[in-house]
Amino acid sequence: MTNVDRTVAASAAAVFGDRLELAERFVGLLTEHGVERGLIGPREVERLWDRHILNSAVVGEQMPNEARVVDVGSGAGLPGIPLAIARPDLQIVLVEPMARRVAWLDEVVETLGLTSVIVLRGRAEESSIKDDVAGADVVTARAVAPLAKLCGWCLPLLRVGGRLVALKGTSAVEEIERDRQAVARLGGADPRVETCGADVLDVPTTVVVVDRVATTRRRTRKDQGAYRA
């Protein structure tokens, strides 16, 4: 790991262990192709490790062993690819609607030999995607949508007892307060804020966790209003 802060390098070694080389190769691919292919902004290249790769990988703390995980709106493969590298026991489906990003994800999965990962083109709310991934143990998403809208898309993909793990920033508490009732109507338990990576990262990752406790109810006018938030 050249040109990387010692603290970040130590964190990466702790998170990825003997699969650190795979993580380095993924960072190399993002560095080489990410900006030109519209996957990341130019300013993100210098902070890929701490802001994107490690931030994503530590979310595995919220996932049971050998879980079936769906990464909705995977984009550049975040958080799904770092998760697959750090946690090879997970079976991960990357769901992405844009063809050029799907092509990128397919290339990364093949190049890195991530046999536990498959890529599907589509949106979480489409019936074909629901048919393919329904009954997941965990659904995760990073910077995809406000909480109520995200629950409307993601909770139907989960088995009862499964959980949504949404990577959020400083808006997490505000979103929970605003969308708590909508989440309940959609079949989710009371949302809660958790942090991941506190033992290895200077700035732990903030996630909102919503357990699916019931089948999704029919959307009401009030729900639809929340979806437009």
From TrEMBL:
Q: Which E.C. number(s) belong to this protein?
A: 2.1.1.-
Please list the GO terms describing molecular function.
rRNA (guanine-N7-)-methyltransferase activity
Keywords noted in UniProt: Cytoplasm, Methyltransferase, rRNA processing, S-adenosyl-L-methionine, Transferase
Cytoplasm recorded as keyword: yes
Classification via SUPFAM superfamilies: S-adenosyl-L-methionine-dependent methyltransferases
Matching entries from InterPro entries are given as: rRNA_ssu_MeTfrase_G (IPR003682), SAM-dependent_MTases_sf (IPR029063)
Which residues are recorded as binding S-adenosyl-L-methionine? G73, L78, A124, E125, R142
Q: Which GO terms describe its cellular component?
A: cytosol
Q: What does the record list as coiled-coil region(s)?
A: none
Family per UniProt? Belongs to the methyltransferase superfamily. RNA methyltransferase RsmG family.
What task does this protein carry out?
A: Specifically methylates the N7 position of a guanine in 16S rRNA.
UniProt-recorded name of the protein: Ribosomal RNA small subunit methyltransferase G
